[in-house]
Design brief:
By secondary structure, the chain is mainly beta. It contains 1 helix and 12 strands. Strand 2 and strand 3 form a beta hairpin.
Length: 156
């Protein structure tokens, strides 16, 4: 996982091919201008999913993982917390190859947030729990974008 300020994303250039594509796109586009739904940036290699949700308590959520894509998430309106785990996991749902998605649980988590222009890049295979209640806010609406970045091994 990488956490940083979106205004400093250029410093991550060269880490992943799909991230470089996104960095170039962000130089000319404002994610705030994206409407709800999916938006291709480079076919199925880099795309954006814009969504609206209500934040939830960690006990009402599971960790999600992906094998083919990394997630770079930012909040467009509202704010959320997230959790990642490097601990042992147990499956909740089987891996869905079509949607590149599975749910797992873990007793261990590291917390962070997406307030004030922050982004979080969750690597493929890294269990993460997004859209959590921020601090003492309680369940709150959030508008966010999840950029899907294909892993280098599948970029070609």
């Amino acid at each position: 996982m990488f956490v940083g300020s979106l205004c400093d994303i250029e410093r991550y250039r060269g880490l992943f091919k799909s991230l470089d594509v996104l960095i170039d796109w962000l130089a000319d586009h404002d994610p705030q201008d994206l409407e709800l739904g999916s938006h291709q940036i480079l076919g199925d290699k880099v795309y954006a999913n814009v969504m609206e949700a209500t934040t939830r308590a960690p006990e009402d959520a599971h960790f999600e993982t992906h094998r083919r894509y990394m997630d770079l998430q930012i909040d467009l309106a509202g704010r959320e917390a997230f959790r990642v785990t490097a601990g042992e996991t147990s499956p909740v749902t089987p891996y869905d190859e079509k949607d590149d998605f599975e749910l797992v649980d873990s007793d261990y988590g590291i917390d962070g947030d997406l307030a004030d222009g922050a982004f979080a890049l969750f690597l493929a295979g890294e269990p993460h729990m997004p859209t959590l209640v921020f601090g003492e806010d309680g369940p709150s609406p959030v508008r966010k974008v999840c950029f899907k970045l294909i892993v280098d091994e599948l970029f070609a």
